[in-house]
Design goal:
Shape: globular
Number of helices: 5
Radius of gyration: 23 Å
Largest sheet: 9 strands, mixed
Number of strands: 26
Length: 491
């Protein structure tokens, strides 16, 4: 689907079926908007979050595992003037006073989780060392990497870092250093923070997040992994120079009987090429998913378990190896902590995909273009919605989800700007009860800076408008006629 998702129930990686989209930090997006993909719901990859998003009114963010132009001066060769410090001002350590070391601190806090020597999630270059920043830029060989960084941190269309905007002070440090020509200062290791291998010693490791949030009691733990075709257990080989979406059929390791998932732990084998995965059930129902970030979800509420049906499952992978020059092996997947029927929790939850809109056609150069989907709940059994999970691609700018009760009361589930690389799943607080006649409205707002219309599809260059909400009891969600009313619109 697209690059970049988010992901999680009370923490990470879409454990309850949502995840984030978007690559960690690529300088360019090779996919052209406008390609029409198969009209099927799917997830999208996202990058590892740097920091915790602020809580939204009425919901708790579920953690997991975001000014046009450039302020770069026109003459980057002009040396920077060091201000004269007053006599009573303490002298800072040499490393702290070096402009590059201030920039190094910013990059390590916001960029190098992806832009490191492994170039995770499609990041085209490393920003881990001074030498990395002085190398020719991947996207423009006439410029150095640090010069491109100086422009990209001010880009409003494809913001970098995508997960969390830099502060004014952080931007100022980068602008000053870039404007001075990117000097290394007296200590390019910044007091020894660069390890012997040329990587920051604080560079986060990517992989299994441990078992701290793993439940004490699982009836069984099952592992599902990606693999090659023909029933082989060998890793899937991601071809060089391609973005691919293999769909791997896997018999449910628990057989034909359903189980309840109470926790999941993603296994991220090769994050150089892995963007996200989604596990679908036999009827193409969304079960769980993952995108780069925290790999373990916090436990579900003690009375809720997620339904995992038996039969043949589909592990839908999204790999991004467009910039790779060789095939890459990957054996990613998920470990699932499950309960068998005798120990099922009272409420069996699943992921709803009807709070959405597939009729998307965003005109070229459109601004603030609204796409709306509506679901009039017609079920006889009330439904409890416990999460709201926005999902779209790179052109989405804002998401709003509301419930209009039969009484006329309007409940806001989600109302916030949309970040392609921080597609969180939010626990609703309080939870929302849907009764017959209530109307759920999903509104996605897009900006399309391209010269072509953009339609629904699963590739990065297409768009989506989803609220992948988790609800129970499973199967009680029912949308009557009028679903997707007002599907095309603009303002």
């Amino acid at each position: 689907m697209n690059r970049g998702l988010t992901k999680h129930w009370a923490s990470a990686s879409a454990a309850l079926a949502m995840f984030a989209l978007g690559a960690c930090g690529a300088d360019e997006s090779p996919a052209e908007p406008g390609q029409v993909g198969a009209p099927q719901p799917s997830g999208a990859a996202g990058s590892a979050p740097v920091g915790t998003p602020a809580a939204m009114p009425g919901k708790t963010p579920i953690g997991m595992g975001g000014a046009a132009g450039s302020n770069v001066p026109s003459n980057p060769s002009t040396p920077m003037t060091t201000p004269t410090m007053p006599a009573n001002t303490p002298t800072a350590p040499a490393a702290a006073a070096t402009p590059y070391c201030k920039v190094r601190k910013v990059l390590d806090s916001a960029c190098t989780s992806c832009h490191n020597k492994d170039k995770l999630a499609g990041a085209p270059m490393s920003l881990s060392t001074y030498a990395d920043l002085q190398a020719p830029a991947v996207t423009d060989k006439s410029k150095k990497v640090f010069q491109v960084v100086g422009v990209r941190v001010h880009d409003t269309v494809k913001p970098m870092p995508p997960q969390q905007k830099l502060t004014t002070d952080q931007l100022g440090s980068i602008d000053t250093w870039v404007g001075a020509g990117g000097p290394e200062g007296s200590d390019p290791t910044c007091g020894g923070t660069i390890g012997a291998g040329g990587q920051p010693t604080t560079n986060p490791t990517v992989g299994e997040a441990g078992r701290a949030d793993w439940p004490e009691k699982c009836d069984a733990v099952y592992s599902i992994r990606s693999h090659g075709t023909g029933g082989t257990t060998a890793p899937y080989m991601v071809p060089a120079g391609q973005e691919v979406h293999p769909k791997i059929s896997i018999p449910a390791p628990w057989g034909n009987e359903a189980v309840q998932m109470i926790a999941m732990r993603a296994v991220s084998d090769n994050q150089k090429v892995l963007h996200h995965w989604i596990l679908y059930g036999p009827a193409r129902e969304f079960l769980v998913g993952w995108a780069p970030g925290k790999d373990t979800n916090a436990p579900l509420p003690p009375d809720v378990g997620m339904n995992l049906p038996g039969g043949t499952l589909t592990l839908d992978m999204h790999y991004f190896n467009l910039m790779g020059t060789q095939s890459e092996p990957d054996n990613s997947g998920v470990d699932l902590c499950v309960l068998k029927k005798p120990n099922f929790r009272p409420n069996t939850a699943t992921v709803n995909q009807t709070f959405s809109q597939f009729l998307i056609n965003i005109p070229a150069r459109a601004q603030n273009f609204e796409v709306k989907g509506q679901c009039t709940f017609t079920g006889n059994t009330p439904v409890t919605v416990i999460t709201a999970s926005p999902h779209a691609h790179t052109l989405a700018r804002y998401m709003k989800f509301t419930v209009t009760k039969k009484s006329g009361e309007v409940i806001t589930m989600h109302d916030a700007p949309f970040d392609f690389n921080e597609q969180q799943s939010y626990a609703l607080n309080p939870i929302v009860k849907l009764e017959n006649g209530d109307v759920v409205t999903t509104i996605c707002t897009f900006d399309n800076p391209t010269d072509r219309a953009v339609t629904f599809g699963e590739n990065t260059g297409n768009e989506m408008c989803f609220n992948f909400a988790v609800y129970y009891p499973m199967g009680a969600m029912a949308c009557g006629s009028g679903t997707f009313a007002g599907g095309l619109g603009g303002r």
